[in-house]
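# nightly structure sweep
# worker-07 picked up a monomer target from the shared queue
# config: single-sequence mode, recycle default, output format = structure tokens
# input follows
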Amino acid sequence: MTNHYIKIIVTFLGMLYFINIKAQTPLFPNSVVSNDIDFIVETDPDAFENLAFIGRMDKEMPSSISNELFDINTFIFEATFSDDETLEIWCHSAFETETAAREYAEKIGPRLGKLPAFQRNLLNHVVVHKGDATAFAEIEGRFFMLYSDNIDDRISTNDLEETIFHESVHASYQSSYENDPIWLNAQMTDPTFITEYAQNNVSLEDMAESALFAYTYITQPGRLSPDIEQWLETNIPNRIEFFRTLYGLPSSVETVENNRVLLYPNPTTGICQIELENVYSNIVAEVYNLSGTLLFTEYINGTFHQLDLNHLKQGLYFVKFSNGVILKVLKQ
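# output follows
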């Protein structure tokens, strides 16, 4: 057999393998209610501290079961978390009393407290309606909607934490990264999708569907079964690496060879303070976006330095120091 024909056969077999890989079946119908996996458990750290009633105001409250866009005398609560951040929870006036509205605000407060801090801090607010419908998110507005009956149903099946995680992905960082080349390349090169829901709604749902599995795999190794972890490693390895960037690096302080670097406040609305400990020579700080593009460079001379991120859009960035430290910072 000539080399020419051997190359044709090898190419053909390679095409068959590629087609087979791409045709693999997703793991589940969807990420939250079609399986019995407890991705987020009761003993996981919870940053929620308290809930305060602010008052009643008129708010925009979109709903999938009503044509009314604005609500009069919405119940407004403010949830406070241990990182000194706050998040408003808007409960529809249909709850009628502060007590009834507070009951549902308190049900979601601790679930919000279990979210990764950067993910929660990118949210503008959370809307709670009275009634029965499926949760959904307003991606550009950075908020999501929950419904009281569905909240109770998801609590009974131990799925409310996962529901809030899923919707918060939509409402926090999806708008910043859904068109990022790294994410798009991960979608294109991974063999398949994590769920049928992701496969059928590639641009809208794949990121949120994949995030729940990836977050658990990265932050709680062994919580998923060995079979599922192996499936993730084989079938969505590039998505896993994308989410590792979000969930796998230190946030505000790191020490390399006794050289300690602190960056605060984090999240920031624009200006960060960099503090150096045991660093006695000038170092360089490089700021990168999630795609690995160098955005700008700062030369640090001294123990304290202000890093100005005001010109950057909302999202996650990496600060790489010439002494080996890499930190991530969230711009709100």
